Amino acid sequence: MKVINTIAALQMLLKPVKSAAQKIALVPTMGALHKGHISLLELAQQKADVVVCSIFVNPTQFTDPKDLEKYPRPLEHDIQMLEAAGCDIVFMPAVAEMYPTPETWHIDLGPAEFLLEGAFRKGHYQGVTQIVKKLFDAVDPDIACFGQKDFQQILMIRQMVAHFDLKLEILSCPIIREDDGLAMSSRNIHLSAADRQHALILSKALNYVHENFDTKPIAELLIDAETMISATPGVELDYFTIANGETLLPESDKNAQNIVALVAAKVGQTRLIDNILLS
């Protein structure tokens, strides 16, 4: 496994891969890796000849400086995990490498940018698409793998890909959960033992909606899920919605093709998101 810190060195390393017409997959991460990230890597390995995993804590997507400051950065642990998983290349640039000069970035990501996470973290998806475009430019991958847990993020990245007419495939990879149902997240490290137990209500509420989707009206399911979460100590609900998976607007038609339930809540001091596909 090669660990690379500059775009120039990365592109030099990938040049013979391109020349041989081999497929390249990119797995963009902010580090603090867990089994969910490794599942992305494993899918990438099935789809491509060479896998590049990037580790970069991107400052432009953090709407709260304190959140950026406390974001976990266990680099040695991450490198060991990637090596054990058979990753080919780790791209680990400094901030100055990705942002050598001050720049402005704004593209039209459509109305969904301002819903859900976009409403709570204004400007977040501009920062996400800014760094993902930079990573795509650096790697020029055929495939990029992202986790379904960040459902809205994948929609925004697909919008960005369409905006620039980029020729690559965006893969959405299933959520990986702990044995008790909690969605794996780099932020889970901040949960106290009590928070960890309280956080389980998020996946329980999503599963409840999934199990009862065919028999109960959407309005009733929403009330039930919100009641379950609000009754849990230490959990402050930001939103629970049953939405159209393309627009993220509330969905009222159960026969729609793409329906997803999404939740975000603060558990103790840690903000968590989760979702489940309903159709």
Regarding quaternary structure, how should these chains be classified? single chain
Q: Helix-strand pattern, N to C?
A: EHEHEHHEHHHEHEHHHEEE
Strand order of the largest sheet: 1-4-3-2-5-6
Number of helices: 11
Shape call? globular
Structural write-up:
There is one protein chain. Helices cover 40% and strands 20% of the residues. The model has no long low-confidence stretch (mean pLDDT 97). The chain has a six-stranded parallel beta sheet, with helices on both faces. Strands 7-8-9 form a three-stranded antiparallel beta sheet. It is built from eleven helices and nine strands.
Summarize the structure.
With 279 residues, the chain is of the alpha/beta class.
Provide key terms for this protein.
20% strand; 3-stranded antiparallel β-sheet; 40% helix; 6-stranded parallel β-sheet; alpha/beta; single chain; 279 residues
Write the layout of secondary structure elements.
Layout: E1 2-4, H1 7-19, E2 24-29, H2 35-47, E3 50-55, H3 65-70, H4 75-84, E4 89-91, H5 95-98, H6 117-120, H7 124-139, E5 143-147, H8 151-164, E6 169-173, H9 193-198, H10 200-212, H11 218-230, E7 235-244, E8 259-267, E9 270-277
Parallel strand pairs: 1-4, 2-3, 2-5, 3-4, 5-6
Antiparallel strand pairs: 7-8, 8-9
